[in-house]
Specification:
Shape: globular
Number of domains: 1
Low-confidence stretches: 6-27, 344-356
Largest sheet: 7 strands, antiparallel
Helix content: under 10%
CATH topology: Neuraminidase
Number of helices: 3
Distance between the termini: 23 Å
Structural class: mainly beta
Oligomer: single chain
Radius of gyration: 18 Å
Mean pLDDT: 87
CATH superfamily: TolB, C-terminal domain
CATH architecture: 6 Propeller
Length: 356
């Protein structure tokens, strides 16, 4: 059962409508939210902005079989909603699996027609996209990506579904779902349901982890790539609404999120891999120009911002233990990661997908 909890949250409204940080003490300038369990994607919505933060959770006490061994499962995944006034609502009760520090649960989030849509997986057992009633937190509709992957298996490889990112094209009422397990970006409409938009062969080891639709109806897709996660081996593909490739941008490393804003396409690079994911090697870059906006970040994941809210990024999204995740203004992310660099982190591990 999903749980809905309202509580006060230490966030200043000025942090949402300007670059003024929420906290200015203890070397934590620019922190918007802290104490998070493996935060992943994040969105900001509305003219009086509201922040939605996904947390993959912290596993639990139930021992189950994972992809690489034993996993600990619990209903600790969920998301937090923070208003511009500083009030917050926490929706929890989604499955979370912790496999030796590799935590999976909820990952993607979008706000569509006053409903909150989330995506995630329950280990290898189930994958889902849910539409939730924002007042009650109850599931009002769902998309079963694993069932469609089992039926269609568009990449022709091992049946797997991990819907890690969502993007809503409001002009055309299309929901795009980046499914890193299926090596597919799905396209969903109310009329046609779920169908494959673009698929890449499993032999390419692409692992699409991020998707964003632009106002002109085109779609950008970012790739993590699979093991051994080569530096400079990721790319961003640009597609038309018909699924035809327009252009590719190469030379990136372990992309986990894209954001189209300010006429710029931002990419979040999770980090470098060398016998494990290396702390403080993540960054946020400009896909078009190659400009680096922030570097030396500790396991960044989601990026958001709008005309009325500054750019914000989730840090400590994996491998750092429960309660260590934060959302921070991008302008302060490097300093925060440097401050954290001396603290003990969980040992990185070699896995198929970053943080999930």
């Amino acid at each position: 059962m999903l749980r809905l909890k309202k509580f006060g949250f230490a966030v200043l409204a000025t942090a949402l409508v300007s670059a003024v940080p929420a906290f200015a003490q203890d070397a934590a300038e620019g922190v918007v939210a802290s104490g998070l369990d493996n935060p992943r994607h994040i969105v900001v919505f509305g003219e009086t902005p509201v922040i939605y933060i996904v947390q993959a959770g912290a596993g639990g006490d139930e021992q189950v079989s994972g992809a690489f061994g034993t996993a600990m499962r619990g209903l600790t995944s969920g998301f937090t909603v923070i208003t511009s006034s500083g009030d917050a609502v926490e929706v929890s009760g989604f499955p979370s699996n912790d496999e030796g520090g590799e935590v999976s649960g909820l990952s993607g989030i979008e706000v569509i027609n006053d409903q909150v849509w989330v995506s995630g997986r329950d280990g290898a057992v189930a994958s889902y996209v849910y539409a939730l009633d924002p007042a009650s937190g109850e599931i009002v509709s769902q998309i079963d990506t694993l069932a469609t992957e089992t039926l269609l298996n568009p990449d022709g490889g091992q049946v797997d579904s991990n819907p890690v990112d969502l993007s809503w094209d409001s002009n055309n009422s299309i929901l795009y779902i980046a499914d890193s397990g299926a090596n597919t970006v799905w396209k969903w409409t109310e009329a046609a349901g779920l169908e494959a938009f673009v698929t890449w062969p499993e032999s390419e080891n692409p692992v699409p982890t991020s998707v964003t639709a632009t106002p002109d109806g085109s779609v950008y897709v970012g790739f993590l790539t699979g093991f051994p996660f080569p530096e400079g081996g990721s790319r961003v593909d640009h597609y038309g609404m018909d699924g035809a490739l327009i252009e590719s941008y190469d030379g990136f490393t372990a992309i986990v999120d894209l954001l189209f804003a300010n006429d710029t396409l931002y990419a979040v690079q999770f980090g470098h891999f060398d016998q494990g994911w290396q702390p403080n090697t993540g960054s946020v870059v400009d896909v078009f120009s190659g400009e680096v906006y922030a570097q030396n970040l500790n396991f960044p994941y989601g990026l958001t911002g709008s005309a009325v809210a500054p750019l914000m990024v989730t840090l400590n999204s994996a491998y750092v233990g429960a309660g260590a995740g934060v959302v921070i203004n991008l302008s302060d992310a490097e300093a925060y990661s440097a401050m954290m660099s001396g603290e003990a982190m969980a040992e990185p591990m070699a896995t198929e997908e970053a943080g999930g």
